[in-house]
Structure to design on (283 residues):
């Protein structure tokens, strides 16, 4: 079957999963809404304080209401999504590259190289992910770049182990032995022959880990060690308003719903891709 025909078959299987389609549509709409925010709402509304408008109920001029400083909650949630989703996507991209390199080298060469890389990964994975990210940020200081680095370090070991396991299952296959017989160099075998056959597990793992990263970003923002004020971020929005949520529940409910919807949609997408790429996995 040609590549084009294979992709059509995968898409056909994916479309059969209604929840996966709903998740994809919801997540794409959310991406368009947050990254296209400058086209329809001014960033100043998310950070400029208007004390006289504090705790305005949702509706009218302020769709989601305002917080204790009179800042528009809709603007803060939308621009906060640029941090939560943008940092999540960037983290997954970095961890994907790092996982491919480390997992590919460990799985293909084995021996001492594999042992060294995997033991380092084991040490990192032995520490709870959020705690490790918090420790790295505390050591390096606050800032979006430090946050991305800390989350990438947390995610790379898991990606590396997944890729390593898949490569070890394929490295002694006949087409790999044929490539070796033709004198193909190891880097070309890894990136030209092995990795293209692992796209399924890689894509599924990427989408599954993205939801985890978004939750981790929100948790760190809630604890005050992520993106610093006045920059909005979903977790920090909830943290800033936690003392007022009892009387103005929309301040915590709305950003919490955005976190839940984004993670849930990514879970649906990951399940749909898993079933489409490997129908034998479907129950």
């Amino acid at each position: 079957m040609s590549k084009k025909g294979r992709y059509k078959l995968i898409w056909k299987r994916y479309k059969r999963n209604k929840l996966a389609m709903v998740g994809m549509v919801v997540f794409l709409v959310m991406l368009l809404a947050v990254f296209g925010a400058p086209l329809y709402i001014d960033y100043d509304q998310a950070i400029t304080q208007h004390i006289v408008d504090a705790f305005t109920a949702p509706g009218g001029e302020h769709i989601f209401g305002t917080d204790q400083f009179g800042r528009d909650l809709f603007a803060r949630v939308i621009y906060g999504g640029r941090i939560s989703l943008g940092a999540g996507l960037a983290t997954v991209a970095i961890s994907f590259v790092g996982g491919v390199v480390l997992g590919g080298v460990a799985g293909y060469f084995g021996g001492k190289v594999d042992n060294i890389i995997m033991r380092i990964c084991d040490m990192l994975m032995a520490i709870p992910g959020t705690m490790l990210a918090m420790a790295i940020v505390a050591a390096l200081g606050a800032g979006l770049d430090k946050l991305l680095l800390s989350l990438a370090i947390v995610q790379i070991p898991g990606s590396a182990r997944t890729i390593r396991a898949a490569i070890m299952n394929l490295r002694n296959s006949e087409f790999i032995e044929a490539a070796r017989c033709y004198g193909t160099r190891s880097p070309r075998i890894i990136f030209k022959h092995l990795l293209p056959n692992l796209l399924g597990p890689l894509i599924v793992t990427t989408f599954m880990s993205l939801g985890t990263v978004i939750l981790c970003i929100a948790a760190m923002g809630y604890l005050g060690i992520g993106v610093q004020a006045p920059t909005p971020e979903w977790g920090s929005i909830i943290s800033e308003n936690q003392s007022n949520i009892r009387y103005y529940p929309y301040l915590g409910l709305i950003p919490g719903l955005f976190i839940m919807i984004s993670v849930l949609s990514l879970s649906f997408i990951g399940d749909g891709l898993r079933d489409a790429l490997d129908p034998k996995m479907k129950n």
